[in-house]
Design a protein that fits this description.
Helix content: 25-40%
CATH superfamily: Phosphatidylinositol (PI) phosphodiesterase
Structural class: alpha/beta
CATH topology: TIM Barrel
Number of helices: 12
Strand content: 15-25%
Shape: globular
Distance between the termini: 42 Å
Number of domains: 1
Amino acid sequence: MRLGIFAGGIAFAAALCTTFISSASADRGRDGDEMRRPLVIGHRGAHGYLPAHTLEGYSLAIELGADFIEPDLVSTKDGHLIARHEPNLIATTDVASRPEFASRKRTAVIDGAAEQGYFAERPQQFNGKFEIPTLEEIIALAKRKSEEQGRQIGIYPEVKHSTYHKSLGLPIEKRLVAALDAAGWNHRDAPVIIQSFEQSNLIELRKLTPVRLIQLIDADDVNADGSLAFNAPSDRPYDWTASGDPKLLARTFGFLVTDLGLQEVKAYADGIGPWKRYIVSSVAAGLPGPGEASRKLLPPNNLIERAHKAGLFVHTWTFRNEQRRLVSDYAGNPVNEYLQFYRLGIDGVFSDFADTAVAARFLFQLERNPDGGRCLTGDRDGPRRQQPECP
């Protein structure tokens, strides 16, 4: 029996008109890397429109033009990998209303914090309509949609709470690699990127698989002056905290964006996934407006340039359309935020609204090559099939 999935927040009002903008028109990556740049990664699927981590949400992200879909992975008691943002199911499924599961409610300590719930936000009208998918179902969906769309759709799984799962005897890493093996996707050119906020499991994965790996880099908040706040549990990778090693306990996530940290990451991963405020931060400005709309941007720093120099690609997160998520400089238009990061040379973005990310990417390409507009009009310079640069 499967649990229905909850969400919470914004009405479904997406126009699908941008689906003609194919990822095939994006740049190739650096150094012969066949990944397109900048990638658009459907954050938890199409989290701005449908409940997170559902086959329906992943499918919508693909229809909206996403190159990759992102399943967060946790393990069930019997070792199956399922797509959930956290092991605790209480906030995102209807488990609390199901009397047959009442006896399973318990308290668990995850990354040092006690949580009560059941262990394994967006439009409320979809509550209970979708099911929790397994990793195998997500891989099958990506393959099926790749064939339907005539373009490669990748998966971007995040290993969630690796240390916690290992403490339960339910390590995710080998199960993930086994699933990739079974799918024929455990090779360097596979449409797979594996990500984690922890470090030791990425080092382990480097020995298990040649697929691309990315070190996620978190922080707790942005201070009034634009500096980043490092408060638990977002102060450092949890495996550093659990290790008790004084050297690792003296570090925060911020170490990973120093030149020394980037060199350390390069030894086991292919890229970094920093929160976008590591690249462009903001300061309190007392402006009217909710959330980040009351703040002003600081000048961008050189993290992307330094990471590229170290041989690492940079994928940043999370881009959203809600006004409270947009700093005042973007004038309430999410496209302006994407364009800033695209112009800075970002290699990929995680987005709740893949259609907006893809439309902004096309505008960015038009900035650099105005003649690309003929891919839309087609007939002016002959049939599209005679224009190989067009999708």
